[in-house]
Amino acid sequence: MNEVSRKQHRTRRKRRLATLVGGVVTAVLGGLMFALPQQASAELPSDTVFYKDPDSQVARWLAANPSDSRRPLISQVIGDRPQGIWFANYEPSTVTQDVQAITGPAASAGQTPVLVAYMLPNRDCGGASAGGAPSFSAYDSWMDGFAAGLGDDPVVVILEPDSLALISCLGSQELADRNSSLSRAGRVIHQANPQAKVYYDAGHSAWNPAGTMADRLRAAGAAQNGDGIYSNVSNYRSTADEISFAKAVLNQLGGTAQGAVIDTSRNGRGPAADGEWCDPSGRGTGRAPTANTGDAQIDAFLWVKPPGEADGCAGSAGQFLPDIAYELAQNAEDPGGSGGTTNGGTTDGGTTDGGTTDGGTTDGGTTDGGTTDGGTTDGGTTDGGTTGGNGDGCDATYQVLNEWPNGFTGQVTISCDGSSLSGWQVTWTWPGNQQLTQTWNGSCSQSGAVVTCSSAPWNGTVPDGGSVTIGFNATYSGSNPPPTDIVLN
């Protein structure tokens, strides 16, 4: 696969460190470096309960935005699910305490944290998540400190995303050094905590062939020092494709003692039709995190990449964006609880029985500060919203959901009551100088002040009593008046 193709499939992320608690504990593993390799342990127990970080980015956003209309759905679908906790900032003096700040509370709760070690030199080959330790010796020392904080209770370690799938930028010596440090890392983690499960990078099903990944895993010591492999981290490939791919890699790696974990955090709708990997629109969260997979070779489905954190296009890599989180929640494969999309939910991308509940759209309109029962009538406006119909029982309501200096997030809700739509187009005219910068759940363009949005492949059907939404970000200067009209066709 050439360099361009690799970049198309490359994943990017940057994650904050866990809460810092100060102080430093020096690595205590030096005398153990030459122990015999750790044998791979049994698969994760199917009743494993994964740990939910109370200080995750989504948790902090939820706490800071109690009145946001998107909050209930984001909380239910994303905030209530355990996710990977990334260690991506090089702060070696505090890494032991940073890890302990997670593993201590998790152990007290009888739960298993999922920690992502992301610190190798030249990570992401200089891409959006470039960084890491300044040298391999510095990495090895950092890993000693990381391992020293793991405690002695169950913990899952996702070891260095992209480290083996993305090696195109490495010379032969740097690749050898990387393999040596990865092999050492698995050994050090197991020596520090024999209950730790260490998973090595296998990329994903649309990147490198299974045989190629098996060779790279073998060279990095995964067969001796790992408990298995992971696939699809920060990507969107379907669960079925990843299961088949992971099994193929395991079979070629040789041996049935190891298993695989699959990142299902954003693959509920599979990849974008055009193959876009960097913050594509129209995606949804996938299977909820669980170790009860029903497959002896698949140890768990995990949300390694926290949903709502950018890949590096819609925002800086790792930045939490509530608009992306909300769209992922709207399109969730498993909405959880009683919310999300129901009675047909996420199939065909549409929502039924009035759309999403608990902070989404209800009875064709939007609640919690939005319009209700189909929105305002006679083309009027409510709270900055504008409604226009097609005369056949369907209408479109424009709203500003969130506004900041010179920018805002908007939403158009298309609702039907007494009729239905099969394919739709909505147009509005801004009286100010607003300019679209990003859209999702529709194909939108702007010509002058006129914006035209057409249905996406998955949400063109709006049933009687149902609704769909288009979301967008836009800029402006001066004032941000609502559209003078909105037309639904």
Automatic annotation (TrEMBL):
Q: Which Enzyme Commission number(s) are listed?
A: 3.2.1.-
Q: Which residues form the active site?
A: 124, 162
**Swiss-Prot/TrEMBL GO biological process terms:** cellulose catabolic process
User: What keywords tag this UniProt record?
Assistant: Carbohydrate metabolism, Cellulose degradation, Disulfide bond, Glycosidase, Hydrolase, Polysaccharide degradation, Signal
Gene3D superfamilies membership: 1, 4-beta cellobiohydrolase, 2.60.40.290
Task: List, as start-end ranges, the regions of compositional bias called Gly residues.
Answer: 336-389
Question: What's a Pfam family this protein contains?
Answer: CBM_2
Q: What class of enzyme is it?
A: hydrolase
Which SUPFAM superfamilies does the UniProt entry name for this protein? Carbohydrate-binding domain, Glycosyl hydrolases family 6, cellulases
- Cited PROSITE patterns: CBM2, CBM2_A, GLYCOSYL_HYDROL_F6_1, GLYCOSYL_HYDROL_F6_2
Region labeled Disordered — which residues?
261-293, 331-389
- Every copy of the CBM2 domain together lies at 387-489
| GO MF assignments | hydrolase activity, hydrolyzing O-glycosyl compounds; polysaccharide binding
Give the matching InterPro entries.
Beta_cellobiohydrolase, Beta_cellobiohydrolase_sf, CBD2, CBM2/CBM3_carb-bd_dom_sf, CBM2_carb-bd_dom_sf, CBM2_CS, Glyco_hydro_6_CS
Question: Which PANTHER family does the record associate with it?
Answer: 1,4-BETA-D-GLUCAN CELLOBIOHYDROLASE C-RELATED, PTHR34876
Family affiliation: Belongs to the glycosyl hydrolase family 6.
Name of the protein described by the UniProt record = Glucanase
